[in-house]
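Notes from the 1:1 (GR / supervisor)

We went over the backlog. Supervisor wanted to see one worked example end to end before approving the batch request, so GR pasted a single chain during the call. The sequence is below; no edits were made to it. Supervisor asked that the structure be written out right there so they could see what the output format looks like.
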Amino acid sequence: MKDPQTKTAEVRIPEALQRSVPREVVLAAGGIAAVAGAILLVLGALAVCILGPLSIMRARRVEARMEAEGRTAAGVVLDVARTRKSPPKDIVQYQFTVEGRTLLGSVAIPVQSRHDPPSLRSGAVVEVRYLPDAPAVHWIAGYPPALMPWFAIVLPAGAMLAGAGLTASSVLHQRRLLAEGRPTIATVKSVGKGKNAKRAYLEFVLLSGATAEPHLDFSHKPPQPGERIVVVYDSENPRSLMRYPSALVRVAEPGEG
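Structure output shown during the call:
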């Protein structure tokens, strides 16, 4: 069986990291995919910020038209079902007839408690408001469709922009480290649990002779205690480091930059 010390002795600093700084750095395949994903997130946030308000304005215009031009027809409740999630709602299915044409619709009516009796019951006669030139636009009188809340626009857009920002920040951080950082071989002292990933606690010696003991988080299988790995760290802040090689960035080949 191979001596573990033999495997450890095989770890070397790659030639690419021995070049003078700043090194020429390009995106690796993972970095290209990450940047593309960040761009898609930004475009998605822009789409939400544009289409969301447009949807709200359109709904308000429909409400204004219904108030000014809408007509009323008698309808009948077909079914009422209460949702289980909180806060509960009654989903009311109804139908009405306009010029010999039967139309179906549904409306969600909020209730205070799941133990409250339904506001409408099957078979109940209701007034249905509709647009005469577009009967397919209709609702039970007093229960217009709920407008999209602004948080339904702000939260998704903010989450997408935050995701894009974190991705871009990670790529830029690794690019700077790889271009200007100092390579060394670190020993894994122990592995524990980080916030959202496995955390490896490392140890390596700085040029000054002092010992640095930073940590790195791994979303996939982390290195094992006693294993030696190549890292690149910020000479001014040794706790800022990355494992080499990276899935996001790589040192450019001669003439590639």
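Supervisor's comment: The longest strand covers residues 71-82.
Batch request approved.
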